[in-house]
Design a protein that fits this description.
By secondary structure, the chain is α/β, with parallel strands linked by helices. The protein is 41% helix and 7% strand. It has 20 helices and 8 strands. A 5-stranded parallel sheet has the order 3-2-1-4-5, with helices on one face. A 3-stranded mixed sheet has the order 6-8-7, covered by helices on one side. Helix 9 links the parallel strand 2 and strand 3. Helix 3 crosses helix 12, helix 5 runs antiparallel to helix 7 and helix 14 packs parallel to helix 17. The radius of gyration is 30 Å and the shape is elongated.
Length: 467
């Protein structure tokens, strides 16, 4: 099996595709893992999941407008998970904070205008990548549009804690600076980020018409923009905190790529929100009405109930495909994996020149019934994969005799003069296919063998039997 064939098999398996909630999150938070930890009341581990992908985790976990919740598959069954509320609860219930380590200094500086969500995220990402970052704002009170958020949702002490952490990353803050002074002081810097979610005048007339809502400015310009509302530059437009924050990340990635002299576009097709190929079986979802947890976390003095939070998180379906695993517990499930992984293991097994081939048992255990392809949305056939591998191993003289000798000898015996029983179906003078139950089934459960033969005749009338 060549690499192209491996890729074709792998692409058919969607078990590893991200869940709908993760695909709808611009930061790609592993929501399934987060909810799994929350369900087990492991709040520190749940917050680790958020910290893994979220910048400013103390802030964003509290203000996120949870687009993931709108894509929860339970919406069509009972009620979507209260993911946004569980994020807020996790931020309050966890007892630890991650330690971040900066990359070696790159010797390059970046200027940032504004201290709203997009600007602070850009500062977060760039400083951790080793850039010297200076943040300027026209206001004395840092925060930009974040200052409009109810303090019961985003306490000022939490925001200031994240500012201190940014300072620890080496970020310098210059409040009370007008925009013209900012341009003068950053005239020699190779890249500038302009946060549109900042208070004060930011010279909107200087923004090119072709800047898109994801803050990526291509070409020769050293200016990058972010913090747009969902309707562009309109002052009264709807604000999405998580999308504004993501625009800061996207701009930071673009700045880093340009200043590092690498491709601006390569490998970014799944950046931000994307469509997952996952297909999950909704018929297996057991209705679990919502716990009402979302209604318990409002108000300035909210104290989330750990038990209620765990009960709400436990409603997560843990979306995956797994149809073939459920249908074939005697083979696919028994090896502890799924077809996409098995394709890689079989490919590696076939590539071994010398040494032990650990996937041989798996390759030879498939009965080639093709039930997996029947239930798979993409017709992934483990039978085709295993049969192809068997044939290649035989052709290359790498298949141990012990793997197939018994079955071949048994079939030869049954087809020979010593054959105990062979017959066409009743009323038939020929057989289109033959049912070969083998000696073990016939010897241990002859009634079951007879019933199986009868059932096969209902599918294909001209089914003969040899045993």
């Amino acid at each position: 099996m060549d690499k192209d064939t491996l890729i074709q098999f792998e692409q058919r398996c969607i078990q590893e595709e991200p869940a709908f909630c993760t695909a709808s999150c611009p930061f790609h938070v592993d929501v399934k893992s987060f909810l799994q930890h929350m369900a087990g009341k492991s709040f520190d581990n749940a917050f680790k999941v958020l910290e893994k992908t979220l910048p400013l985790p103390e802030v964003l976990s509290r203000i996120c407008d949870h687009p993931c919740q709108h894509e929860c598959v339970r919406r069509s069954v009972d009620a979507p998970l209260a993911i946004g509320s569980l994020e807020r609860a996790c931020a309050a219930l966890r007892s630890r904070q991650k330690k971040y380590f900066k990359a070696p200094a790159k010797g390059k500086s970046v200027g940032i205008w504004g201290s709203g969500a997009s600007s602070l995220v850009a500062a977060w990402d760039l400083s951790l990548k080793g850039y010297a970052v200076s943040v300027f704002d026209s206001e004395n009170r840092l925060g930009g549009h974040l200052n409009r958020i109810d303090p019961s949702v985003l306490p000022r002490a939490v925001f200031e804690r994240e500012i201190r952490r940014l300072t620890g990353f080496g970020v310098s803050f210059f409040p009370d600076t007008d925009f013209s002074t900012f341009k003068d002081r950053t005239a020699d810097l190779p890249a500038l980020f302009i946060g549109m979610d900042a208070h004060g005048e930011s010279d909107l007339s200087s923004i090119p018409d072709d800047v898109d809502s994801f803050s990526l400015r291509q070409g020769e310009s050293r200016f990058f923009y972010g913090g747009f509302s969902s309707d562009g530059l309109r002052a009264d437009a709807v604000q999405s905190p998580v999308m504004q924050a993501f625009q800061g990340r996207k701009a930071a990635t673009s700045i880093d790529r340009i200043l590092s002299g690498v491709s601006l576009d390569a490998g970014r097709h799944k950046e931000g929100v994307f469509i997952t190929r996952l297909d999950t079986d909704l018929s297996r979802i057991t209705p679990k009405p919502g716990t009402g947890f979302e209604k318990t976390i409002t108000g300035a003095a909210f104290a989330p109930d750990p038990d209620l939070a765990a009960a709400e998180a436990a409603r997560c379906h843990q979306c995956d495909c797994s149809r073939c695993i459920k249908a074939c517990n005697s083979f696919i499930e028994s090896f502890g994996g799924f077809p996409g992984r098995y394709a890689r293991e079989i490919y590696n097994n076939l590539s071994i020149v010398m040494g032990e081939r650990k996937a041989n048992l798996m390759v030879n255990s498939c009965t080639l019934c093709d039930l997996c392809a029947t239930v798979c949305p993409n017709d992934f056939s483990m039978a085709d994969l295993c049969l192809q591998a068997r044939r290649q191993m035989l052709e290359d003289k790498r298949m141990p005799v012990s793997a197939h000798a018994f079955a071949l000898e048994e079939m030869a015996h049954a087809m020979g003069d010593a054959c105990f029983f062979e017959r066409h179906a009743q009323g038939m003078d020929h057989s289109d296919i033959l049912f070969f139950p083998g000696c073990q089934l016939v010897g241990s459960s002859p009634v079951q063998a007879a019933r199986a033969w009868q059932w096969l005749q209902g599918v294909t009338p001209a089914t003969g039997i040899v045993t």
